[in-house]
Amino acid sequence: MIASLVLLIVCSRIFTKPLYLSYGFVFAFAFLIFALIYGILGSYVLRNEFHGIHTINDAVYFCIETYSTVGYGDIYPLTTMAKYFVISMIMMGLIMFTSGITLVAYLFNNKLRHLLFNINKGKISMTNHVVLLGYGILAKILIEGYKQSGKEFIVIDNSKNMDTDREILQENERLLISPYPGNRNILIRARISEASLIIINFENDSDTIFAIMNVTEFLTNHPTANKPQILARIYYEENIAKAKLAGADIVIAPHLLAAAEIKRLGLA
User: Fold this and answer.
1) Residues 140 and 111 occupy one common structural domain
2) Which residue of 20, 129, 160, 215 is surrounded by the most CB atoms within 10 Å?
């Protein structure tokens, strides 16, 4: 793990995307550092209660020797306190070993999922799901609800600025990056014609309407028994009719609804 981190730092200049580390990797690495510090400092502080520990180098040697379960016998505890300290080090070594095995299994499973994903030509294995075009505040709120209810969903976004939220979605195969709103190849991969609902909510109305047009054209060319509904989020009132004309079945304008409610309450 230490060698991997050193290699990552040395080669950091060739990476063009922000670094994303999973919580499992961060936890495992932090625990490794803590265990090494604990073993080295603890054995050095208790050096008078060990046979063979005189310097900090001896403590480092004993720590690595114990965690690696080699045990040459040249260094060993003399007192009860030292024996209990060695027992605590052995327990930490077991935790490090099991954590490492779990992390390796997770990475292998993740690679296997990506392999199967590529074998399937990039198509997701969902039907009757929700497709969200655009990843903003509305999409984040809806996704939390889908996770709680167990509803399948996939996000299509044309943003190239990957943040942590998008990295997590992509790692879990819940995000497809599109070169522009409504790209045909991405719609095929998202199985959009087999979805139950399509929600289009980009940060500006022009992208939303453009995506509606592309999705409508795609669904027309790929008809199914149950055509998914298209719901579009629009910001400006003059674009509501345009969104419906482009093919949206339902058009909502949260900002306009909020403004109307404020007026109804006599607050404006």
Assistant:
1) no
2) 215
Please count the structural domains in the chain. Answer: 2
Asked if 250 contacts 218 with a C-beta cutoff of 8 angstroms, the reply is: no
For residue 205, give its domain range: 130-264
Would you write out the chain's pLDDT as a tens digit for each of its 268 residues?
Answer: 454 445 545 555 544 445 555 666 677 778 888 888 999 999 999 999 999 999 999 999 999 888 887 878 889 899 999 999 999 998 888 887 777 777 777 777 766 666 655 555 555 677 899 999 999 888 999 999 999 999 999 999 987 667 888 888 888 888 988 888 888 888 988 889 999 999 999 989 999 999 999 999 999 998 888 889 999 999 998 999 999 999 999 999 988 888 877 887 877 6
> What is the four-CA torsion angle of 150, 151, 152, 155, rounded to 10 degrees?
-110
Give me the CATH number covering residue 34.
1.10.287.70
CATH at residue 144: 3.40.50.720
Going by C-alpha positions, the residue among 266, 227, 235, 231 that lies closest to residue 249 is 231
- C-beta of residue 236 within 8 angstroms of C-beta of residue 219: no
CA atoms of 189 and 254, how far apart (whole Å): 30
In total, the chain counts a number of residues equal to: 268
